Amino acid sequence: MSVEMLVLVGVLVLVVGGCVCVVWAERGGPRWVRAVAAVTRFAGELVSRAGRGSGQKSSGDSDG
Length: 64
Hints:
Oligomer: single chain
Radius of gyration: 15 Å
Helix content: over 70%
Keywords: Membrane, Transmembrane, Transmembrane helix
Order of helices and strands: HH
Shape: flat
Number of strands: 0
Strand content: under 5%
């Protein structure tokens, strides 16, 4: 396995784990789960803002 593949798998594991923590926190998980969920939401917001800043339209925008 190449280094790039290992990095990709690592990022994927972090993303899936963060999503699991968000769902678990919504159901009243422990404090550490709520902390991971907050970090995951914050990271998602940063990615979303970066996407909007580069000229991409969000799915809620309309052309007309």
